[in-house]
Amino acid sequence: MKRRIQHIAAAMLLSAIVVTGCGQKPTPTTKASEPGTTTSNGTLPKETGSGLAYTVPGATQPGKPKATAVLTKPSGKTSDGSAASKPGEKEPDLSEIKTGDAYDTATVRRWMWDTTAKNYPKQKLVFLTFDDGPSWNNTPKVLDVLKANNIHGTFFYLTSGGFEDNADIVRRTAAEGHRIAIHSNSHEYDYLYPHGIADPEIVVDDAMKTVAKIKKILGNDWTTSAYRFPGGSMSWVDNAEAKAAMKKTIQGLADHGLQYMDWNTMTGDADLNNKDKSPEGLVSFLKKQTESAEGHVMVVLMHDAAHVNNTPKALQGVIDYFKGMGYEFATLK
Fold it and tell me: Taking the C-alpha atoms of 262, 266, 269 and 271 in order, what is their torsion angle to the nearest 10 degrees?
């Protein structure tokens, strides 16, 4: 993995993005409490040394994160090392790619990493994505900002713990035209990725539990094709065995109609490398990451968990930045 990353970095001459929290492979942790809920002692989950980590009273805190793969800008490569689009693979035509402001997930993934991909858009596109919600306090604030700007986002929701308690927020998210996508039912790394390697059956089963719980709230007509690996897919491909497992996992998800989606820029609201998590600091971090990214299809990683309180405050600045740069806002099917 190190050799591939070094090769990519040398070839693309890009600044590295070291991801923590939702985008870093941490040391195994104890079972976590759900974002959007309080712990049994009534306190909100805390941000720990491994970024976003939901803790329970008395639980052992995770140790210092392991050194992880450095996310650089690949050139037409997916997280399992294969080509973003295989030779001879049918690319969706334009009528299949876009419906309203929603774009085909697999196609956006190709565009994000490969500016030479077929049908690469002429216009600048940005996808605002939010992980680890819904939360009772921050998700409504995010929705308020998006509504005020008449912009839609994509929300990668978790469904364990108090998810049903936030059913009204889930319904509001869908009613206001946002896309609800799959993040996880458990978000437990040691369960989904035992020994740091994705377990295809567990990951797919976990994803389908998430689908079922969302359908229970929104009805069977609700669909999505967008899935985001807890920790991001690139965190789990640091050796040949892990790459093979990830490739099998990706295929298992695809067999159920789910396409994985990572990101190529972020606000750093859960990144230990971003020392300034003030609203202004998040916008500044985003600008630096976006300027170092290649192409003009941006997928932005943010979080709407209960304890990431400055993301709603920074969101207007994020929107203003992309508006000023001439971007169109879009969502994932």
Answer: 70
